[in-house]
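Hi, here's the filled form for the chain we discussed.

Project: internal
Contact: R.S.
Residues: 298
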Amino acid sequence: MLRPSFVPPPQIRQLRDLTRYRVDLIGVRTAEKNRVEKLLEDAQIKLSVVASDIFGVSGRAMLAALVAGERDPKVLAQLARQRLRAKLSLLEEAFYGRFSDHHGFLLQTMLDRIDQTSAAIATLEAKIEQQIVPFQAAVVRLDEICGVGRAAAQVLIAEIGVDMGRFPTPGHLVSWARFAPGVKESAGKKKGKASTGRGNPYLARVLGEAAVAAGRTNTFLGERYRRIARRRGAKRAVVAVGRSILIIVWHLLSDPDARFHDLGPGFYDTRSNADRSKRNHVRQLEALGYKVTLEPAA
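And the returned structure, exactly as it came back:
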């Protein structure tokens, strides 16, 4: 059983304060960027349709020019750099709108807040790097997990800690994190799986992001995500792969000498036994209308 009165050591609590505040500030910055896009839409400026990132070097130069009073679509489009210059004609069309001085004032205010928040995030990240030094070896090991980057590894350590002594098995950690769905049962009959329940939102967020990132890779976790997503949907795939990542984290933190080893995308195929393959083939033939009788080869 887990100790309900467990309190993380001071270093972990301080790290948690920093990583959680970083997540909150990133959310603030994202919300402000969304306001910028909405403002441009109100002014009928379709920059985000042409540029994948309107806050990149080219995008910021164009936004700064709009704030400064430039309204000529040709001049604005010429501020594009590198690959975006291949879309000059589309950029010109995107800048035909009704951007006013009122829009310029609001845009400048929003951009200032984005920059201020980015500076605060950078300061936080520097402090987190200092705070994470005692756990650097654990960060390196967790960073090797598919879908888990350095920032995600920092959050995992901040939310879970590095002492797995309070979690006797990986299942205890999964249950504590609310990534182990229960089973609905009534009168002895199972009625499907219940929801995972409400757990740690910061931990759930980083596991979800890691699961989605892993789903884009040609790895065991990526193949697991895709197999489940095809059958059960993306949400269940996120929970399942997030649970797998937690189990890996438990093993890596329980054994300082353990390292992550990817089983590969073909793991499911190689572990399929002959009986299961036989059943699948028989089922497919029967679905086509055949009566199948199997006899061993001589």
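Let me know if anything looks off before we file it.
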